[in-house]
Amino acid sequence: MQELGRIRVLLAEDHAIVREGLRLLLEKQPDIEVVCEAEDGRIAVERARELLPDVVVMDITMPNLNGVEATRKIINEFPQIKVIALSIHSDRRFVARMLEAGATGYVLKEGPLDELVKAIWAVTAGESYLSSKITSIVIDDYVKGLATDADSTLSFLTNRECRVLQLIAEGKSTEQIALDLVVSSRVIEAIRRRIMKKLGAHTIADLVKIAIFENLISLEL
């Protein structure tokens, strides 16, 4: 739990200007302390392990490890840590994937600045916090009885396959991916073939297009 009543926050956001703005906003709050920043999902997981923050503010589309998988890893290891998604995406696919991964908050970047502060206070108190637009999406899905990720092409892939797809789309070689995931190159080649079969892709370019469409990677990378 937070020390001396202060909420310890880790900011995971790949854009430095946005991170700086968030830090300045949060540091104006006397009960919030930004203990670390991370520019990609992998670093966010590493810093969460080292620092055990109370709250992680997690962007969804980040290099090396996207926010969904980073959230899943953090929550699996440290269920006491609260994760708030901070995203430009209000699409139900992103909302469903983040909530399924264990996030207890979802705030849109287009919302008012103080909304993130309210979300941090809420999740720290053991509550959930969703932007009003996100709440409408969740309720709509519940009423319609929609599957949480039925709209997503990625629903056909395992977590590891999603991870490999992201790294392929980021331009990593088979050897680099194998080193990153601590497996052999032959294993990665087999996973890539399986991904292509599941997604009906015929080339690496097809995989990159799918990854961009599903926002596994950003066009700014």
Notes on the protein architecture:
The chain has 221 residues and is α/β, with parallel strands linked by helices. The protein folds into two domains: 142 residues, Response regulator (Rossmann fold), CATH 3.40.50.2300; 61 residues, Arc Repressor Mutant, subunit A. Strands 2-1-3-4-5-6 form a six-stranded parallel beta sheet, sandwiched between helices. It is globular. The protein starts with 6 loop residues before the first strand and ends in an 8-residue tail after the last helix. About 3% of the residues have low confidence.
The CATH topology of the largest domain corresponds to Rossmann fold
Overall geometry comes to globular
The overall number of domains is: 2
Count of DSSP strands: 6
CATH superfamily of the largest domain: Response regulator
CATH class call of the largest domain: Alpha Beta
Low-confidence stretches: 145-150
Strands of the biggest beta sheet: in what spatial order? 2-1-3-4-5-6
Number of helical segments with 4 or more residues: 10
